[in-house]
Amino acid sequence: MTVSLVTLEHQGAVALVTLSSPNALNPLTHELMTALGNTLQMLDADNQTRAIVVTGSARAFAAGADIQAMAQMTYARAVTENFLADDWQRVSTLRKPVVAAVRGYALGGGCELAMIGDIVVAGDTAVFAQPEIKLGLLPGAGGTQRLPRAVGKSLAMEMNLTGEPITAARALAAGLVSRVVPDADVVNTALTIGESIARHSLPVLMAVKAATSRAFETSLAEGLSYERSAFHGCFALDDQREGCVAFLERRVPHFNHR
Ligand code: CAA
Q: pTM, whole model, 2 decimals?
């Protein structure tokens, strides 16, 4: 019997990707990460998709990397097989907007996967942590890099050095998530945000994501220069003209995504 580790549904131009491991905690096994990477890469290349929502089960967005596999891992294999690298590269290089819809546990790689979301929506009982230190490890998929960029040094250090969890309310106050809603509303809220994104021009959405992401990777001067080039580039698009003219004609724009 083949078990589908990831399910995919479409709501207009918004894709809903659900981690559906037989273990509702969604340990991020190589098989699950491969299925997720295949699905996300396919959606990134699909012209009909303009926003992607990623969610887990009601119990857990994901409880982290596969501890079963890591208990057997050796340094030689980790280095030569480049453990975690390819799997995570494939899920973290999408050009389309991604909304992470987090219910329950987002631990270790689960928290790191949530941070791959351009926007993170959390349920009110969601729990975020980087507990790798308790396993004799450090975060290996962005916890030492994306987390401080999201919440600042002090809280990132506290989370990474103690391994202790933070609540959804604290994650909101720290800027790790953009909204906290009742658990039952998390997926619908993320889909609504996805719809509100997907009504815009796809090449401009991609440019906005790329430019905003630059803010975390370059100096201010380089980032502003990148932004200006991307802004100038919009004037090559039919959708730019349509957006501005529609505003002046007091009508809804009809974007053709070119
Ligand atoms: N990997 C593999 N299996 C896992 C797992 C994981 N990350 N998390 C839970 N499981 C398994 C448990 O071993 C258990 O399996 P069995 O039923 O076969 O014994 C099953 O899922 C249920 O787990 P619990 O009995 O522990 O469930 P609980 O409700 O008591 O606790 C939990 C839930 C708090 C999420 C707890 O399971 C937990 O702390 N999990 C580990 C979280 C963690 O340390 N994550 C970081 C992993 S390292 C990492 O992610 C590295 C990186 O940077 C990428």
A: 0.97
